[in-house]
User: Fold this.
Amino acid sequence: MSGLKPLIAGNWKMHGRRANLEEIPALIRETGAALSRVEVVVCPPAPYIEAARAHIGGAAIAVGGQDCSPVSADAARTGEVSAGMLRDAGASFVIVGHSERRSLLGETDDLVRQKANAANAAGLAPIVCVGETQAQRADGKAAEVVAAQVAASTPDDPAGLVVAYEPVWAIGGDRTPTAEEIAEIHGVVRAELSRRYGKAGEAVRILYGGSVNAKNAKEILAIDGVDGALVGRACLKAADFSAIVLAAPGAR
Ligand code: 13P
Assistant:
């Protein structure tokens, strides 16, 4: 870990219903005082953002969206949700450029950068996702691919920016990179952020994502250059997600 406050973000993806928001009070109970030492963000599907905020009450948990429109102003964009609307509903973060959207919906680095800029314009902190595919890693191209994604999909202004390194092949299964592989790519991301933003790049937190769970979190979160985690499946149950929060360095 660097000297940055650890950030643990839970990405519900398209899972759950309103009843699942009951996990939030349980998360608050189970994490307790750690919430002052670790920043925690829950990213439910957009229709539940406002209700998630209500369940959080005064606890130190933030809410994030999972995507936003690249267009900031109100516009004729059926089905799109603007960053300003997410903010109005109670979000303070938004995930952009998740690999599921890049691969299934064809989102490009350029579109992701526009979304991150729209997030900034609305006062939301963008969590920009990057990561190589299995084929790119097998070709020895992981570092090159990730550096190019960071260069082209991060916003013009680094204020509040978070980058999540999520190797595509590690998402949704049971494989994770080795500690050395994670440290190497986090170093690549950090170098690219410094190149792009200078000193301000040092304040950007770099999360690891892809099959983080209650069992492997402590080891992953202790890796040099890892400032937190972006968690999929294991964020859906308070027992698992709270164990990950409590595994962050300095949480206890
Ligand atoms: P899993 O933790 O389920 O592998 O998902 C990771 C992810 O894509 C988080 O954004």
Notes: The CA atoms of residues 145 and 245 lie 29 Å apart. Strands lie at 7-11, 39-43, 61-65, 93-96, 125-130, 162-165, 205-209, 228-231.
